[in-house]
Amino acid sequence: MSTDMSTHYDVQALPAEQREHILRGFGLGWWRQLGQVAIVFGVVLLACWYVGLLDATTLLNGLPSIATLAGEAMPPDFSGYRSWIRPLIDTLAMSIAGTAIAVVFSLVVAFVAARNTAPHPLVFGVARVLLNALRSVPELIMGIIFVAAVGFGALPGVLALGLHSVGMVGKFFAEAIEHVDEAPVEAARAAGATPMQVLLHAVLPQVTPQFADVAIYRWEYNFRASTVMGMVGAGGIGFELMGSLRIMQYQEVAAILLVILAMVTLVDAFSGVLRKRFK
Fold it and tell me: Which domains does the chain have, with CATH numbers?
């Protein structure tokens, strides 16, 4: 007896009507996919036209100005590097503290924003609306609000990055919880575990690696975003960058951008090491 348990279908051996029906289905599916691709491509082209991306004349006219600015920024001027050390530390601390706030609040919100762990549909709906609200307000707007509330410095940047990040981190955390394997959850409930014990011993161990990956990625994003927060008065290296731009010291601007690039590269490399440890 053959041990091959796989099933093979010979289309040619089927009756003519069934064979024609199958082939027609494949043809319709192919045309349907082609139509969907054409619609998406058309929408993309329309958006590009609307924003002027297809206006070759305007783009070509801007090239000389870009070349002039690039020439004025060379060579980069690193003479003021000593004054950038403290702002860089502020930027790094801002990104770490903002990410920590986001992770702590997201851990609380995510379990009530996931369908399989929310205690009540109303609580689930409120949690989702809260995450959407935090995610919909850009961190720059939050930064302006917190600068007006608590003054200049790194604190408003931390608050803005942290609260804005809760919207995205909490969403990812909630989706990870919704996709857990239900077998350990059912086993814990069958053993008489309380709802909190089920979360701690059946749900949390499954999602911890994903939580760590999302938190590390968000830290990378927050470091880049924290350089922008300085432009609204939240301190950091972005504040120094804006100061150089205002007085048109383009050589210094180029140097600061290179420093930011180096720091982003280091943060990216370090986050890669952290991801390997959490896998």
Answer: 16-72 (no CATH), 79-278 (1.10.3720.10)
In what helix (H) or strand (E) does residue 35 lie, and over which residues does it extend? helix 16-50
Query: Contact, 240 vs 160, CB < 8 A?
Result: no
CA 262 to chain centre: 21
> Cα(96)–Cα(91) distance, rounded to whole angstroms?
9
Residues in the chain, pLDDT under 70:
1-30, 233-234, 278-279
Helices 237-246 and 85-113, axial angle in degrees (round to 10):
120
Give me 217's structure tokens.
Answer: 């990625």
Contact indicator for 199, 138 with CB cutoff of 8 Å: no
The Cα–Cα gap between 146 and 137 comes to: 13
3-state secondary structure of 5: coil
| Token digits of residue 9 | 């279908």
**For residue 228, what are its two tokens?**
């922008």
Residue 6, pLDDT score? 44
120-126-130 Cα angle (round to 5): 145
Please tell me whether residue 192 adopts helix, strand or coil conformation: coil
Determine the pLDDT at residue 5. Answer: 44
Q: Which helix (H) or strand (E) holds 234?
A: none
The full length of the chain comes to 279
